[in-house]
TrEMBL record:
Protein EC: 2.5.1.25
InterPro entries reported for this sequence: DTW (IPR005636), DTWD2/TAPT (IPR039262)
GO MF annotations, alphabetized: tRNA-uridine aminocarboxypropyltransferase activity
Alphabetized UniProt keyword annotations: S-adenosyl-L-methionine, Transferase, tRNA processing
Domain of life assignment: Eukaryota
Any one GO BP annotation for this protein: tRNA processing
Start and end residues of each stretch annotated as Disordered: 240-261
Domain DTW, chain residue ranges per copy: 17-236
Keyword Flavoprotein: no
Name the UniProt record assigns to this protein: tRNA-uridine aminocarboxypropyltransferase
Annotated catalysed reactions: a uridine in tRNA + S-adenosyl-L-methionine = a 3-[(3S)-3-amino-3-carboxypropyl]uridine in tRNA + S-methyl-5'-thioadenosine + H(+)
Length: 261
């Protein structure tokens, strides 16, 4: 469920009339209907996305597409999470405040760890609960640029820190690549290697959280590949400049896989 549908058109000159697909609500030239699931996918994991207001106007935003792919997905627009934004999160917050958290529902927010606020790899987080067949998960995701996402997490911590654990996806530069051009799923220029779209981040998490995660992840990744293919087909060929090497201090700031929209 989403409270917003991205109405921005994509890959077309301004001030021209474009045919919009009524189903996927994208320009007909980049229609995704053939790639989207016939019905939104059901998951035991509840997903709550806080989307920065600037992202709702971005033509390459993946959250509107993700909402069409998943049934249990809620999108909130804002710069921070607080009491009253989501009935689901409110219930987890209130239960934790009463020191009576539900034993079978576990919440996490996805964000790379830093020295001041370390994160737990999502695989380790899940394994800490034992039999995952009796557990249900709530995944909180922040949709925005790297700068905005950091601000949103910091502003939301007073609300969610008592019921949600900070988790991250594993990232190995030897496997995932050290440049911002290494992924065929790239939709935007990334600040550094290992970044990914919000939709890809959710897909990777569901691949771990869900009993049939591999199938769900594969379907979502295929949609992103089609989007990236459309994007690449509209770009003029350019010589990619090598990425500047980051300092050791920069490397220490991010110890796990990151994401941006």
């Amino acid at each position: 469920m989403s409270i917003l549908i991205d109405g921005d058109s994509q890959f077309s000159p301004p001030n021209t009339r474009r045919r919009i697909c009524n189903a996927c609500e994208r320009p007909a030239t980049v229609c995704l209907c053939d790639s989207l699931p016939a019905e939104p996918l059901s998951t035991t994991t509840q997903i709550v996305i806080l989307q920065h207001p600037h992202e709702q106007r971005h033509r390459l935003a993946t959250v509107p597409v993700l909402n069409k792919c998943l049934r249990n997905c809620q999108t909130l627009i804002g710069r921070r999470l607080r009491l009253g934004d989501s009935a689901l999160l409110d219930s987890l917050h209130d239960a934790a405040s009463d020191q009576n958290p539900p034993r079978s529902i576990h919440a996490a927010f996805l964000f790379p760890g830093t020295d001041p606020t370390p994160s737990m790899e999502i695989n380790r987080w899940i394994s800490s609960f034992g039999d995952t067949n009796v557990n249900k998960f709530v995944l909180i995701v922040f949709d925005g640029t790297w700068k905005h996402a950091k601000e949103m997490v910091s502003a939301s911590l007073p609300f969610m820190s008592n019921f949600a654990t900070q988790v991250s996806l594993p990232y190995d530069v030897r496997v995932d690549g050290g440049t911002k051009f290494s992924s065929d799923l790239t939709l935007r220029k990334e600040p550094f290697g290992g970044c990914m779209s919000t939709m890809e981040a959710v897909a990777r998490c569901l691949g771990i959280l869900e009993p049939n995660g591999a199938e769900i992840e594969s379907q979502l990744i295929q949609v992103i590949k089609v989007m990236a293919g459309f994007q690449a087909s509209f770009l003029k060929p350019t010589n990619r400049k090598p990425k500047l090497k980051r300092s050791n201090d920069d490397e220490k700031r991010v110890n796990s896989r990151s994401f941006c929209t």
